[in-house]
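Q: What structure does this chain adopt?
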Amino acid sequence: MTADVARRSSIATRETVALVTALGGIYIVSQFLRNSVGVIAPNLAQELDLSAKEVGLLASVFFFSFAAAQIPLGIALDRYGPRLCMLVCAAVAIAGTLMFAFAYSPFWLICARVLMGLGSSCYLMAPLALYAKRYPPDRFATMVGLQMGLGTLGTLLATAPFAFAVAMIGWRTSFIAIAGLVFAAAALVAWVLQDDASDRPDGRETFDASLAGTLAAVKVRSFWSVFALQLASYSSFVVVVGLWGGPYLTHVYGYSLTERGNMLFIAVVAQIIGAFVWGPTDRLFNSYKIPVLTGHLLTAGALGLAAVAGVFPRLLLLLWFIAIGLFPAVVTVLIAHGKSLFPAHLAGRGMTLMNIGTIGGVFVCQTITGFIIDLFPLVNGGYAIDAYRAVFSFQSGFILLACLIYFFSRDPRRNP
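A:
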């Protein structure tokens, strides 16, 4: 290798490190915002006298606005490029985070979460679009893995570390600090990511062409079968870890803020491990459907067990939270199944539509479970154990129904 080639390689490596750091950093913050209600839900309910359905709506509207933004986001990425989209979204996220910090009514809290969802909507798709343009195909999977791996740190920060911060400075001051972190991450993106003509397509697709491509994607064979399970898959993890797990630990087991943060932290770590465990299983079985159905049936079984038992001994409780992180991580294989259904020219649109199912399912499940819990009277100021059992029963049944629909999907690994 000549000195000139080595120098160019070194520069390219430094540029990649800077780019991944900037894009991964802002994705960490957006993932934190997504999961930030779970730990503080009991605090919010007590301080602002929120009902269970208000708590459920508060968590879920983030995912509704996030999902609703996906199709217009795809068009904006094509027209204006990832850099501008990410900076505009950062401004929206900062506004939502500050609004949340200063809100004193359910209405303004919900409006703040809507803005957070809109502001966080581009921090996976925009980097992936950028990586696809700037890096060769054989490096794309590595870049995706780095982006998603860094983002998981945001989910981890929303558990025990966030509980510690709330205990030290309160949840309002914590969100003011988070707004500062969003600003810092956006500034890093603005500095590192300069406009590049390669970040945009050569031509701008008309609205009619965009709509035609979207309609073609939803007509692909087995789209709706896989989409149905997307609705139940990620939501099964977030309904527990991102919302009701914290109140469940507080109301049923008497856990403190720090203790419930630690337990949710363990579930997130189990999810990370699960993603690595489940990842290669489609190749191991030469099938998407075998590992996907196995993982989801195990998830339904774990939730069904909690619905029947209601209360676990402490060791079994720990194992249950590990299962709630480990089993739903099979969503990585489900995502790969979804991508495999689409021809190359529809892959981007198809993945965006599947992402709507993934995120939209969280909105549906968190909203419905909030209404379910409100059907039961409070017990000593907390939600009744039967309310949680009903939530676990609902989610388990939803997964089983989705699995039945998914069972009839085409498996491209078995039937190309």
